[in-house]
Write a structure and sequence with these properties.
Elements (H helix, E strand, L loop, with lengths): L2 H12 L5 H22 L6 H8 L9 H23 L5 H12 L30 H13 L7 H15 L6 H15 L12 H13 L4 H22 L1
Length: 242
């Protein structure tokens, strides 16, 4: 299942260290596309070019403050992910809450970084998240899995499963998708993979694979979905460096 991406990663590793400005340009490209797509999946109407302008510190007329904050906040959350990777910190609930706090900063400060205190449903999904009083225990189990048993499986599979678990728990009132995609990339980046971009045009396949994982207890489709995106990111890096 992972042979092709393992080969591509080995090739990428053989080309390290990546030249400073080449790496900077790759990171900027992925940050823009990651930010645009993750927000667009959740309904943000800023275009790719508008997202780029907002990242540069310019406001867009006719767009809401929330849409601007979603771009700036996601950029800050990505920086935090990079800091965790650089420090080599193991996953913790504190990190997850901090990522969520950054995502909702200035948008919903009352619930930023705070587990939900009421039941919610996931629009368009058959899966029903657990009751709010079960969240703490299930998130602790998720972190324990990521720091223990899951270390024995391929990092791409581990990243996909972590994402699926957190989305399924739906621990926050809002911002679960963005936070879970940040966690997915956090696990990939810890293992030396470049971050992936789940594109808004693939939103239906993404949601369907996740819902199948939750309802049929079968992760295969979602893992294959993530593998495809990992391959795309590796191919981007290799195309620039080859």
């Amino acid at each position: 299942m992972f042979e092709q991406i393992n080969e591509k990663k080995e090739k990428l590793d053989s080309l390290r260290p990546i030249p400073k400005y080449t790496l900077k340009s790759l990171q900027e490209k992925l940050l823009l596309e990651w930010t645009y797509n993750t927000n667009a999946i959740e309904g943000n109407t800023l275009t790719l070019n508008e997202t780029k302008v907002v990242l540069e510190g310019i406001t867009i007329g006719g767009k809401t403050m929330r849409e601007h904050l979603e771009v700036i906040n996601h950029r800050d959350a990505v920086k935090y992910v990079e800091e965790i990777v650089q420090r080599g910190e193991p996953l913790s609930e504190w990190q997850i809450k901090n990522l969520h706090r950054l995502i909702l900063k200035g948008i919903d400060d009352d619930y930023a970084g705070v587990y939900r205190d009421q039941q919610v449903l996931i629009a368009g999904a058959n899966h029903v998240p657990p009751a709010h009083f079960l969240i703490k225990e299930q998130m602790e189990q998720c972190v324990e899995l990521a720091r223990g048993e899951a270390l024995d499986i391929h990092p791409v599979e581990r990243a996909a499963i972590l994402h699926r678990i957190v989305v399924g728990i739906h621990p926050f009132i809002d911002g679960n998708g963005r936070t879970s995609r940040l966690l997915l990339n956090l696990e990939l980046m810890k293992a030396g993979f470049p971050p992936i971009v789940i594109k808004v045009e693939n939103r239906l396949a993404y949601y369907e694979a996740l819902d199948k994982a939750h309802t049929a207890k079968n992760d295969d489709d979602f893992i294959q979905f993530v593998i495809k995106e990992v391959k795309n990111s590796l191919d981007l890096y290799l195309s620039v460096l080859s």
